[in-house]
UniProtKB/TrEMBL annotation:
<dbReference type="InterPro" id="IPR051469">
    <property type="entry name" value="FliN/MopA/SpaO"/>
</dbReference>
<dbReference type="InterPro" id="IPR007597">
    <property type="entry name" value="CheC"/>
</dbReference>
<protein>
    <submittedName>
        <fullName>Chemotaxis protein CheC</fullName>
    </submittedName>
</protein>
<dbReference type="Pfam" id="PF04509">
    <property type="entry name" value="CheC"/>
</dbReference>
<dbReference type="InterPro" id="IPR028976">
    <property type="entry name" value="CheC-like_sf"/>
</dbReference>
<keyword id="KW-0145">Chemotaxis</keyword>
<feature type="domain" description="CheC-like protein">
    <location>
        <begin position="10"/>
        <end position="47"/>
    </location>
</feature>
Protein backbone atom coordinates (compact mmCIF):
# COMPACT_ATOMS: atom_id res chain seq x y z
CA UNK A 1 0.00 0.00 0.00
CA UNK A 2 1.15 3.52 -0.77
CA UNK A 3 2.31 4.86 2.60
CA UNK A 4 0.94 8.29 1.68
CA UNK A 5 -2.57 6.85 2.09
CA UNK A 6 -2.07 6.05 5.76
CA UNK A 7 -3.46 8.51 8.27
CA UNK A 8 -1.09 9.45 11.08
CA UNK A 9 -2.18 8.78 14.64
CA UNK A 10 -2.91 12.49 15.07
CA UNK A 11 -4.95 12.61 11.85
CA UNK A 12 -6.91 9.50 12.88
CA UNK A 13 -7.66 10.96 16.32
CA UNK A 14 -8.78 14.24 14.75
CA UNK A 15 -11.01 12.48 12.21
CA UNK A 16 -12.54 10.36 14.96
CA UNK A 17 -13.36 13.48 16.98
CA UNK A 18 -14.73 15.30 13.92
CA UNK A 19 -16.90 12.27 13.10
CA UNK A 20 -18.07 12.09 16.72
CA UNK A 21 -19.28 15.68 16.57
CA UNK A 22 -21.01 15.16 13.22
CA UNK A 23 -22.62 11.90 14.33
CA UNK A 24 -23.92 13.64 17.42
CA UNK A 25 -25.75 16.07 15.16
CA UNK A 26 -27.12 13.22 13.04
CA UNK A 27 -28.22 11.34 16.15
CA UNK A 28 -29.97 14.43 17.48
CA UNK A 29 -31.92 14.83 14.25
CA UNK A 30 -32.93 11.16 14.25
CA UNK A 31 -33.89 11.34 17.93
CA UNK A 32 -36.17 14.27 17.15
CA UNK A 33 -37.85 12.35 14.32
CA UNK A 34 -38.32 9.16 16.38
CA UNK A 35 -38.88 10.86 19.73
CA UNK A 36 -36.46 8.53 21.50
CA UNK A 37 -32.88 8.64 22.77
CA UNK A 38 -30.20 7.54 20.30
CA UNK A 39 -26.97 5.88 21.40
CA UNK A 40 -23.89 6.28 19.20
CA UNK A 41 -20.81 4.08 18.95
CA UNK A 42 -17.24 5.30 18.78
CA UNK A 43 -16.29 5.74 15.09
CA UNK A 44 -14.08 2.99 13.64
CA UNK A 45 -11.63 4.09 10.96
CA UNK A 46 -9.63 1.81 8.63
CA UNK A 47 -7.76 2.01 5.33
CA UNK A 48 -8.76 -1.11 3.38
CA UNK A 49 -8.12 -2.85 0.07
CA UNK A 50 -11.09 -3.22 -2.24
CA UNK A 51 -10.74 -7.00 -2.15
CA UNK A 52 -11.28 -7.03 1.62
CA UNK A 53 -14.27 -4.69 1.83
CA UNK A 54 -16.87 -7.43 2.42
CA UNK A 55 -14.70 -9.02 5.12
CA UNK A 56 -14.28 -5.66 6.85
CA UNK A 57 -17.99 -4.88 6.72
CA UNK A 58 -18.86 -8.28 8.21
CA UNK A 59 -16.24 -7.72 10.93
CA UNK A 60 -17.68 -4.30 11.75
CA UNK A 61 -21.41 -5.03 11.73
CA UNK A 62 -21.60 -8.81 12.16
CA UNK A 63 -22.83 -11.60 9.92
CA UNK A 64 -26.52 -11.17 10.60
CA UNK A 65 -29.04 -13.40 8.86
CA UNK A 66 -30.20 -10.63 6.53
CA UNK A 67 -29.71 -6.94 5.97
CA UNK A 68 -31.11 -4.15 3.84
CA UNK A 69 -28.96 -1.21 2.79
CA UNK A 70 -29.31 2.13 1.10
CA UNK A 71 -26.50 3.96 -0.64
CA UNK A 72 -25.85 7.61 -1.38
CA UNK A 73 -22.86 8.92 -3.28
CA UNK A 74 -21.29 12.32 -2.64
CA UNK A 75 -18.92 14.57 -4.56
CA UNK A 76 -17.25 17.92 -4.14
CA UNK A 77 -14.22 18.64 -1.96
CA UNK A 78 -14.40 14.96 -1.00
CA UNK A 79 -16.03 12.08 -2.85
CA UNK A 80 -17.18 8.61 -1.97
CA UNK A 81 -20.10 6.43 -1.03
CA UNK A 82 -22.21 6.31 2.13
CA UNK A 83 -24.24 3.25 3.12
CA UNK A 84 -26.83 2.81 5.84
CA UNK A 85 -27.31 -0.85 6.75
CA UNK A 86 -30.45 -2.01 8.58
CA UNK A 87 -31.15 -5.45 10.00
CA UNK A 88 -34.24 -7.37 8.90
CA UNK A 89 -36.37 -5.91 11.70
CA UNK A 90 -35.23 -2.33 11.28
CA UNK A 91 -38.16 -1.12 9.24
CA UNK A 92 -40.73 -2.67 11.58
CA UNK A 93 -39.30 -0.82 14.59
CA UNK A 94 -38.97 2.46 12.70
CA UNK A 95 -42.54 2.22 11.41
CA UNK A 96 -43.84 1.67 14.92
CA UNK A 97 -41.95 4.68 16.27
CA UNK A 98 -43.13 6.89 13.41
CA UNK A 99 -46.78 6.05 13.99
CA UNK A 100 -47.50 3.52 11.26
CA UNK A 101 -50.31 1.14 12.26
CA UNK A 102 -50.44 -2.48 11.14
CA UNK A 103 -48.48 -3.85 8.20
CA UNK A 104 -46.92 -1.35 5.80
CA UNK A 105 -46.48 -2.18 2.13
CA UNK A 106 -43.14 -2.51 0.39
CA UNK A 107 -43.24 0.98 -1.14
CA UNK A 108 -43.84 2.63 2.23
CA UNK A 109 -41.13 0.47 3.80
CA UNK A 110 -38.60 1.55 1.21
CA UNK A 111 -39.53 5.21 1.56
CA UNK A 112 -39.13 4.97 5.32
CA UNK A 113 -35.65 3.43 5.09
CA UNK A 114 -34.59 5.95 2.44
CA UNK A 115 -35.85 8.90 4.49
CA UNK A 116 -34.07 7.82 7.67
CA UNK A 117 -30.89 6.99 5.77
CA UNK A 118 -30.97 10.35 4.02
CA UNK A 119 -31.18 12.14 7.39
CA UNK A 120 -28.22 10.21 8.80
CA UNK A 121 -25.99 10.56 5.74
CA UNK A 122 -26.76 14.22 5.19
CA UNK A 123 -26.41 15.27 8.82
CA UNK A 124 -23.21 13.33 9.41
CA UNK A 125 -21.32 14.07 6.21
CA UNK A 126 -22.40 17.70 6.10
CA UNK A 127 -21.25 17.97 9.71
CA UNK A 128 -17.85 16.56 8.80
CA UNK A 129 -17.64 18.83 5.75
CA UNK A 130 -18.55 21.93 7.78
CA UNK A 131 -15.82 21.23 10.33
CA UNK A 132 -13.25 20.65 7.58
CA UNK A 133 -14.31 23.60 5.44
CA UNK A 134 -15.34 21.28 2.62
CA UNK A 135 -18.41 21.29 0.38
CA UNK A 136 -20.38 18.22 -0.69
CA UNK A 137 -23.11 17.44 -3.21
CA UNK A 138 -25.22 14.33 -2.65
CA UNK A 139 -27.01 12.02 -5.04
CA UNK A 140 -30.51 10.84 -4.19
CA UNK A 141 -30.47 7.81 -1.86
CA UNK A 142 -31.29 4.44 -3.42
CA UNK A 143 -31.90 0.92 -2.16
CA UNK A 144 -28.75 -1.07 -2.91
CA UNK A 145 -29.74 -4.42 -1.37
CA UNK A 146 -32.75 -5.97 0.33
CA UNK A 147 -32.67 -8.89 2.76
CA UNK A 148 -29.29 -10.26 1.72
CA UNK A 149 -26.38 -11.70 3.66
CA UNK A 150 -24.09 -8.97 4.96
CA UNK A 151 -21.12 -10.25 2.95
CA UNK A 152 -23.23 -9.90 -0.22
CA UNK A 153 -23.98 -6.20 0.18
CA UNK A 154 -21.04 -5.16 -1.98
CA UNK A 155 -20.31 -6.48 -5.47
CA UNK A 156 -16.51 -6.44 -5.64
CA UNK A 157 -16.59 -6.51 -9.46
CA UNK A 158 -18.23 -3.07 -9.50
CA UNK A 159 -15.52 -1.42 -7.38
CA UNK A 160 -13.08 0.72 -9.36
CA UNK A 161 -10.68 1.74 -6.59
CA UNK A 162 -7.79 -0.15 -5.01
CA UNK A 163 -7.88 1.30 -1.49
CA UNK A 164 -10.41 3.28 0.49
CA UNK A 165 -10.96 4.85 3.87
CA UNK A 166 -13.79 3.07 5.68
CA UNK A 167 -15.52 4.83 8.59
CA UNK A 168 -18.24 3.02 10.57
CA UNK A 169 -20.59 4.29 13.24
CA UNK A 170 -23.71 2.57 14.51
CA UNK A 171 -26.85 3.90 16.12
CA UNK A 172 -29.01 2.06 18.63
CA UNK A 173 -32.35 3.08 20.11
CA UNK A 174 -32.86 3.15 23.85
CA UNK A 175 -36.40 1.75 23.73
CA UNK A 176 -36.17 -0.71 20.82
CA UNK A 177 -34.00 -3.60 19.69
CA UNK A 178 -32.80 -1.59 16.71
CA UNK A 179 -29.38 -0.89 15.26
CA UNK A 180 -28.33 0.66 11.99
CA UNK A 181 -24.81 1.19 10.71
CA UNK A 182 -23.54 4.17 8.74
CA UNK A 183 -20.55 3.24 6.57
CA UNK A 184 -18.60 5.82 4.59
CA UNK A 185 -16.09 4.87 1.89
CA UNK A 186 -13.66 7.35 0.35
CA UNK A 187 -11.27 6.21 -2.42
CA UNK A 188 -7.57 7.04 -2.74
CA UNK A 189 -7.85 10.54 -4.18
CA UNK A 190 -10.24 11.61 -1.44
CA UNK A 191 -7.96 10.22 1.28
CA UNK A 192 -5.18 12.55 0.16
CA UNK A 193 -7.54 15.56 0.09
CA UNK A 194 -8.94 14.53 3.46
CA UNK A 195 -5.46 14.46 4.97
CA UNK A 196 -4.84 18.06 3.88
CA UNK A 197 -8.21 19.15 5.27
CA UNK A 198 -7.55 17.43 8.61
CA UNK A 199 -4.12 19.04 8.86
CA UNK A 200 -5.64 22.47 8.19
CA UNK A 201 -8.28 21.77 10.85
CA UNK A 202 -5.63 20.82 13.42
CA UNK A 203 -3.59 23.93 12.62
CA UNK A 204 -6.59 26.07 13.63
CA UNK A 205 -6.94 24.44 17.05
Amino acid sequence: MNEELFLTEEQTDALQEITNIAMGRAGAQLAQILNTFIKLSVPRINIIQSSSISHNIVHMIGAKSAATAIRQSFNGSLSGEAMVVYDQYGCRNLADLMGYDGVIDRTAERELLLDVGNVLVGACLNGVADLLGASLVFSAPTIMAENVEVDQLINIKQITWNYALLVEVHFTLEIRDFTCHLLTLMPEESILRLQLAIDAFMDKI
